[in-house]
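My main concern about presentation is that the manuscript never shows what a single data entry looks like. Each protein is reduced to its one-letter sequence and a matching series of backbone shape codes. For the editor and my fellow referees, an illustration may be useful. For illustration, here is how one protein appears when written out as sequence plus structure tokens:
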Amino acid sequence: MDRICIVGAGAIGGFLGTRLAATGRHRVGALARGATLAALRTQGWQLDSGGALLQAPVAQASDSAAELGPQDLVIIAVKGPALAAVAQQFGPLLGPATVVMPAMNGVPWWFCQGLAGFPGGGTLQSVDPGGTIAAAIDFERVLGCVVHASTATRAPGLVQHKVGQGLIVGEPRGGHSPRAQAVVDLLAHAGFEATHAPDVRYDIWYKLWGNMTMNPISAITGATIDRVLADPLLRAFCTAAMQEAAAVGQRIGCPITQSAEDRHAITARLGAFKTSMLQDVEAGRAIELDAIVGAVHEIGQRVGVATPSIAALLGLTRLFGRVHGLYPASA
């Protein structure tokens, strides 16, 4: 895979783009805009990891997919609320064999496509209203991806890597494939801890199960996760919501065997950590509520699993987002 395009060169996109470009094995370009686009054109890819600055040239950066042309691999790293608009623009990036890999938070638009017997079809209205994204990106092009890394944008075009190198890649329908292995190999060569997953849907659900509560609660309260877990009432509420999400996962072939308390213990080791949603609130950015909470609530309704705690969490965070201009009034 020679031609790679990063769609959305923010914290995760810049992290991936810089590492891949620095290998010198690929032509890594970017579909970007505004100050990020200007920075890429003048400074190239930049990543601060542990105080060491890694720089690499950008093959081409543009706000026009037509100018970039067909790619071998398109990595989508935009925020969830922006994806529907972006997806309608990047058709020119797609050649006959282009692979599309979203590296995003929460439940992706394709998650229930190809899921046998899923009630009401595979389109999730919470993350893909009207099926706009699915219409723009053919399901057969998609590879699933789970990112286990913490990054932040220090300035346009300059990403700070904090912790984590993990990337889990796999076919949406499960099983191994040559194209997934090719992506795993190129990621591993770029220094990532890349894994070829036999069931990437499970890996997506497992990560979501762990951060579905922490993200919105921290966003509403402004608290780091250590303070959320230290409050016995909030900890119990998180446990109840996680048990509901585990029951939903059981219905869709993504069973969670770990207990909520065991997961809390793992999360607590991160210390005074700010979630991505809290960082978005503090920066005045739209919150990714639909992919992280709304989709779980919708899937639960579709498969007949009651999720009262998740519904309360969704309602509270949605209203908080609307009051603060961080979530659409009519969504």
User: Anything to note?
Assistant: The mean pLDDT is 96. The domain at 3-198 is CATH 3.40.50.720 (Rossmann fold). The beta strands are 3-7, 27-31, 45-49, 52-56, 61-62, 71-76, 94-102, 144-155, 158-170, 193-196.
